[in-house]
Design a protein that fits this description.
Largest sheet: 2 strands, antiparallel
Number of helices: 13
Strand order of the largest sheet: 1-2
Membrane topology: Multi-pass membrane protein
Shape: globular
Main location: membrane
Structural class: mainly alpha
Number of strands: 2
Pfam families: BPD_transp_1
InterPro entries: ABC_transporter_permease, MetI-like, MetI-like_sf
Helix content: 55-70%
Subcellular location: Cell membrane
Amino acid sequence: MTTVTADPAPSSTPPGRSARPSRLRHSWDRHWYAWAMVLPVVIVLAVLIFYPLFRGIWLSFTNLTEANQVAEICTRSITGGEVCTENPNKWEFVGLDNYVRVLTGEVGEFWQWTGVTLIWTFACVACHFGLGLGLASMLNRPMRARGLYRVLLVLPWAVPAFVSAFAWKFIFNERFGLANALLSAIGIDPVSWFADRWTALFTAIVTNVWLGVPFMMVALLGGMQTIPGELYEAAEIDGASAWQRFRNITLPGLRPVSMTVILLGTIWTFNMFPIIFLVTEGQPAGQSEILVTGAYRAAFEGIRNYSLASTYGVLILSILLVFSVFYRRALRKQGEVW
């Protein structure tokens, strides 16, 4: 007896496509309300971040300046009318010329500014973390008026950066500053703080440390308060000293928080414009400039050079992206999921 089997019905799905809906379509059908709530944020990010970013990258490949940005130059004639002529120096695409000029030192002092920026960033972040960790450890212990101390230590963070910059600049004033007054009181000659590259950079680092320690302290204090107290009690019962408890419990427990705040602190300090610009003003002779302030002076003092400013912006962004990638890889090697 022969069994006859019917041919399967032809599939309506085109070849090469799955019968199931795509993940994106499936997610939209199930969570359309979430997508609708996220959409305004995406639009704002696109307008305020992504468009300026891609626009800046494009401008870095041109020679756009304040002088050649218009296609026509119009002048008023004797009769009161306007006579417009084509701009002979209209901006154009120049490829990698801006990057070559910057990296070879034809415009600005890119490598000198980069070196100063690295010293500035390392010194500030190290002081931020060290002082913040010490203050957080102190405030994490039971003590009288602990709440008052916390408020007082957070105050520098609440003061606008430009106000703090002007205050510290006056403190380091050669003739009327408090710093030289204290030195004179103990028999030391006054110091011309802004006449030397390293003393000028020192004043900026002190100012930035005063501003940045409160954030680091608050972040690390919050991390300490998430560490279970039972770990310290067990270690104390086992005879561990205070230093051993700090090294083997506190520091490992703070690793997720500390790795994040170090990264954020590095990015913020690398781009910290107002402190250098207002405190040292690049003195002496531009030797204390960092990348962001040097780029500003090179691009906007005199005729505004938009393409040069964009070039510096792309280079600074590239440096920070490379640092972030290597930083993330280093964390992964240590077992951190980030």
